[in-house]
Structures are given as C-alpha cells and as structure tokens.
Write a structure and sequence with these properties.
Blueprint (H helix, E strand, L loop, with lengths): L5 E5 L3 H12 L3 E5 L8 H4 L3 E2 L6 H15 L1 H5 L5 E2 L3 E5 L1 H16 L5 E3 L1 H7 L10 E5 L3 E3 L1 H14 L3 E3 L4 E7 L2 E7 L4 E3 L2 E4 L5 H6 L8 E11 L4 H4 L3 E4 L4 E6 L3 E6 L17 E2 L8 E2 L1 H9 L12 E12 L6 E4 L6 E5 L9 H14 L17
Parallel strand pairs: 1-2, 1-13, 2-9, 5-15, 13-22
Antiparallel strand pairs: 3-8, 4-8, 5-7, 6-7, 10-11, 11-12, 14-17, 14-18, 14-20, 15-16, 16-17, 19-20, 21-22
Bound molecules: flavin-adenine dinucleotide.
C-alpha cells in the first residue's frame, strides 16, 4: 500500500479498534466507522476470559500477544488497567489429556506460564471443586479476564489520539467496488467515502456487507446466553479464577467480588469445538435477537456446574444477557485479503473466542494492509473456504 493512502475500518469492536490504533500509530490515514459506539456489539458483552492455552500454535501466539497489548494499555492510552490476573484454570478428561499436555509444553516454550496439574494438585489448588473425571488440569497464573468494554474503548481513544478519525453512530450501508478493486463505502445517509483499502471487522454483520460487492463467506451467527449469579462478597471464594471445564462443557469467572458470570462452552476456547455440544440458537438477523436471558436458560447453565462446583447452587440468579458469536465452519477466525476484490480485507468469524486475540489480530491486520502477507494469519485466510 502506498504511503498516505486512506483506509476505512468498518466496526469498532476489539478487532476494528485495534486495527485502527495500529494503522494510526504507523502514520496511516485511517477512519474507523461504527454503527453504534466502540464495543457497542459483541465485544462489549464479552466475558473476556484471557488465556494462552490453545491447541493451535497461531492462536496461542495471538493470545499471548493480545494479553501483552491489553497489559500495556495504561502506557498506550493513559487508561486502565483493564486486566485482572486471577489466573485461568482448565480441566479435561482422559480423552484430551495427551493433546493438552503437549500443547501446554509448546506454550511454555513460547514464553507463557502454564502449569500442568495432576488431579490431586488440582484438588489442592481448587478447594470446593469436585474431582469427578478430571485427568489433567492446566493453570495459567498470568491470565484471567479483561474489562472488555473499557479496554476496547481505551484502544479506540488511543487510535483517535494518534490521528484516526472515528465516526460513531454511523452505519456503513454498502461497500463500493471499482472494477476489481475496493473503492470505499457508502454510509446509510448516502455519503460516499473513498478509500484505497477497507478492513471489514463487522463481526456478525460481516456477511451482510460482503454481499453488497457480490462476495460471500460461510459465516453464521449464534446467540450465546450468559448466566449472572449473585455472589456478593464471595464471588472469588466460590470461583477464585477464570475457569473452563472441558468435561462439563462450561466456563465461568468472577466479576470483581459481586457476581459470577457463567456460560456453556463447546470447545471454541481450544480451537476445536465439541460436536456433541451442537450449534443451537442460530440467529438470522443480528439486529433482531433476544438479548435478555430467561431464568430457565440461566438454570440450565447453572445445572452444568452442579457436580463440579456445588457451592454455585446456593447463589441467586440475576437477570442474564445474551450476545452474539460470529461463527465460521471450523471455529477459526477468518482473517485476510478477500479474493475477488483487491484492497478488501476481512477480520471476522472469531467464533466466540476472539476477545483475547483481538488486540493482536488488529496489530497483524494493520501490518497485512501496510506490508503484505503476515505468516501468523495464513491459517485463517478467507480463501480456505470455497465460497470466498
Ligand atoms: C457473551 C459472550 C462471551 C464471550 N466470552 C469470550 C471470552 O471469554 N473470551 C474471548 O476471547 N472471547 C469471548 N467472546 C467472543 C469475543 O467477544 C468476540 O470474538 C470478539 O469480541 C469479536 O470482536 P470483533 O471486533 O471481531 O467483532 P464485534 O465485537 O462483533 O464488533 C463488530 C462491530 O462492527 C459494528 N458494525 C457492524 N456492521 C456495521 C456497519 N454496517 N456499519 C458500521 N459498524 C458496523 C458493530 O456495531 C460492532 O461494534 C464472547 C462473546 C460473547 C458474545
């Protein structure tokens, strides 16, 4: 890309905000366009569990770099801190013990702290948690969770401080193609914005925008309900760390010491999804889905913890909320140049586990736009799908 050329980033979630920040920091003339406000979509509802543990090396590397960027936000933005390092605990059964051990060893080699714990060591480290079927636990003491809304907004403000233009409450109606190149976008009020490159970081709305230039990707949208458990003064006693259980297919974390957030987990956190967990709750229109969570849904989530964390059964159920996952067929993100339209890049399909990697994905996408191919992004290329 030539110096001084204009880039439009569509969507100010964690990924788009980070792309805009890194482009602006590199001196690129960039405009970030967001239909609501930064973190107004799924990023703002993210549980934002942070961990380096992934079975896929590229995801681990992006997660490690993502944490570094989140940790450095006080220097970058003058705001924060946004990371709570309470540690991340995982458990799995016999079926995944060998692959998890191997991944943990690899991740240690990449510089992250990750301990493998025997069932007994897990029992010692997690009083109140039952051992049933646990063959192995992993403990990542440097990780935990982030304030997703605060961190995304801080990155967007840091982008603005470095010269990015941010257009909030501004809907991109369609992309504009000129011959085989991207020409820019047209806003809902009819304004045409020209650009040499467009980065589509529109989460669940990505597919809709692609169709405006005759492109498609096999992305679909799922509703993801969160139970909010009342645990005033004892959230960290009942759930002392960020938690993910491969056996019971659930995850949780305290939010300060007031509540515990809990959800079901289908394997996206390792880059491999449990097929038996199914893919319910498809959403046709991301502008029209049930954002509230019925008590019966929260009870269903809570029931998955009944054996492992019996103390959770005594907690009150507050109104829950649901966000959207933009899913790809292989649960891996879809990041790269879109074949068919030069200058159009996509960074979407984060499949329910893209907050922790988002800051690093933004950094890599900014380099992709300015410098060309980035090896770490190769496995996520849109061209892996026939429809692209
Ligand atoms: C309830 C929940 C819990 C989660 N928990 C975790 C977790 O523990 N750990 C983790 O790593 N990940 C988690 N995730 C996933 C993670 O939040 C997402 O993968 C990540 O936030 C996606 O970020 P994004 O920037 O790609 O997209 P989004 O956050 O979807 O942002 C896209 C933005 O584009 C804007 N936009 C769309 N269309 C247009 C348009 N036409 N014009 C202008 N703007 C537009 C939207 O308003 C939105 O703000 C969770 C997600 C949910 C919903």
């Amino acid at each position: 890309m030539r110096t001084g050329s204009d880039v439009i980033v569509v969507g100010a979630g964690i990924v788009g905000s980070s792309v805009a920040y890194h482009l602006a920091a590199a001196g690129v003339n960039v405009t970030l366009v967001e239909q609501t406000h930064p973190a107004g979509g799924p990023s703002g509802k993210s549980s934002a569990l942070l961990h380096a543990f992934y079975l896929m090396p590229e995801l681990s590397q992006l997660a490690i770099r993502g944490r570094e960027i989140l940790i450095s936000l006080p220097e970058i933005s003058g705001e924060g801190p946004f990371v709570t390092e309470i540690g991340m605990m995982w458990v799995c059964g016999n079926d995944n013990e060998a692959s998890w051990k191997a991944a943990a060893e690899r991740i240690r080699g990449e510089g992250a702290l990750i301990e493998t714990l025997s069932p007994q060591a897990f029992a010692d480290a997690a009083p109140g948690f039952a051992l049933d079927n646990v063959a192995l636990a992993l403990w990542e003491p440097e990780y935990g969770y982030a304030d997703a809304f605060g961190a995304t907004n801080a990155i967007a403000r840091a982008a603005k401080a470095r010269g990015a233009r941010i257009k909030q409450n501004t809907l991109v109606e369609r992309l504009v193609k000129e011959d085989d190149r991207i020409g820019g976008v047209v806003l809902a009020d009819g304004t045409a914005m020209k650009a040499d490159a467009v980065v589509l970081a529109a989460g669940p709305w990505t597919r809709r925008l692609l169709t405006t230039v005759g492109l498609d990707l096999p992305l679909h949208v799922e509703r993801h309900p969160m139970a909010v458990l009342d645990a005033a003064g004892k959230a960290r006693q009942v759930m002392p760390f960020a938690w993910c259980d491969d056996i019971s297919c659930n995850y949780a974390r305290p939010d300060n010491d007031g509540v515990i957030l809990a959800g079901t987990w289908a394997g996206g956190g390792t880059g491999v999804r449990h097929e038996q967990a199914g893919r319910p709750r498809f959403v046709d229109n991301p502008d029209d889905y049930m954002e509230g969570v019925e008590e019966a849904e929260s009870v269903k989530i809570l029931e998955t913890f009944a054996t492992r964390v019996p103390a959770m059964a005594d907690l009150g159920i507050r109104p829950g909320y649901a966000g959207l996952y933009d899913m790809s067929p292989d649960d891996l993100p879809v990041i790269g140049a879109m074949p068919g339209v030069d200058g159009l890049f996509v960074a979407a399909g984060s499949s329910g586990h893209g907050f922790k990697t988002g800051p690093a994905v933004g950094e890599a996408v900014a380099r992709l736009v300015t410098e060309g191919a980035q090896p770490i992004l190769v496995p996520f290329s849109p061209s892996r799908f026939k429809a692209a």
